[in-house]
Amino acid sequence: MPQPHLRTRSKKQIKTTVPGGKTKTHYKKEKTSTALCFLCKKPLSGIPRLDATETRKLNYTKKRIWRLYGGKICPKCLKDAIKQAARALA
Ligand SMILES: [Zn+2]
User: Fold this and answer.
1) What is the DSSP string of the chain?
2) What was the pLDDT predicted at 31?
3) Considering just the CA atoms, what is the radius of gyration of the chain in Å?
4) What's the gap in Å between 3 CA and the centre of ligand 1?
C-alpha cells in the first residue's frame, strides 16, 4: 500500500525494476503547465514552470515579468493592443 500522500491519480506512476529484480511503482510529480498568453494562447517566456511551493521560494522579481500585463500577455499582443488604443484615441 502506498503512503497516504501517494494515493492519488495526479502523480505519474512509473513501473521500474529495482536491483533485487522486483517490479516497484515509483511516483513522479507532474510538472505544472506553462503560462500562456490569454490573447494568442502561445507560451510565455520568463515565467518559471514551478509549482506553488517552489514559486514561493523565488525572489520577488523572478516570479513575474516587470512589464505592463507581464506574465499575462505576450509582448507582441501587448504591442498590438497599445497601437489599437492609440488609434482609438486619435
Ligand atoms: Zn499573445
Assistant:
1) ---GGG-SSSSEEEEEE-TTS-EEEEEEPPPPPPPB-TTT-PBPSSS----HHHHHTS-GGGSS-SSTTTTTS-HHHHHHHHHHHHHHH-
2) 82
3) 21
4) 42
Distance from Cα 65 to the centre of ligand 1, integer Å? 14
Query: pLDDT tens across 38-63, in order?
Result: 999 999 998 899 988 999 999 999 98
pLDDT tens-digit series, residues 9-24: 888 899 999 999 999 9
For residue 41, the CA-to-ligand 1 centroid distance in Å is 6
Cα-flanking dihedrals φ and ψ of residue 55, to 5°? -65, -35
CA of 76 to the centre of ligand 1 (A): 6
Instruction: For residue 25, report the distance from its CA to the centre of ligand 1, in Å.
Output: 40
Residue spans of the domains in the chain: they are 1-30, 32-90
What CA–CA distance (Å, rounded) separates 59 from 84? 34
